[in-house]
């Protein structure tokens, strides 16, 4: 291809167009993709490479005891069991499904012996759970409060 003055020029627009279309089809845009053999290609996405103490945001394992207790397998099983017992239904609105929370009837912090007792839980929708804590707070919760809340 020649320009107006007769000099030979490369038609890069066609080459670029082909590369771009190929990239759009494969999900890899050529100029921004990691190239094979590139250091980032080999290391950036290895599983577990940037977790725990290897992560740049690591702060020395400062998880609180409360977080460790609330996120262990026993508590996960408790949440699941309470929701299954209540047939995946919010006990306030009687609506099935949606975002459900397992609420401790007697406080988690004040009654450690009841933390994983299924009888100490009730299923509430996310909205109802937030509403309960707006009305009654997060401390000194009782069975009477939850019964009053559900009956309103």
Describe this structure in words.
The chain has a two-stranded antiparallel ribbon with strand order 1-2. It has a domain at 71-151. The chain is mainly alpha-helical. It is 39% helix and 7% strand.
Kindly list the characteristics that best describe this protein:
single chain, 152 residues, mainly alpha, two-stranded antiparallel ribbon, 6 helices, 2 strands, 7% strand, extended
Largest sheet: 2 strands, antiparallel
Quote the average pLDDT.
80
Strand order of the largest sheet: 1-2
Poorly predicted parts: none
Q: What portion of residues belong to β-strands?
A: 5-15%
How large is the count of helical segments?
Answer: 6
Report how far the terminal alpha carbons are from each other: 81 Å
Structural class, from secondary structure content? mainly alpha
Computed Rg: 29 Å
Helical proportion, percent range: 25-40%
Number-wise, the strands total: 2
- Large-scale geometry: extended
H-E order: HHHHEEHH
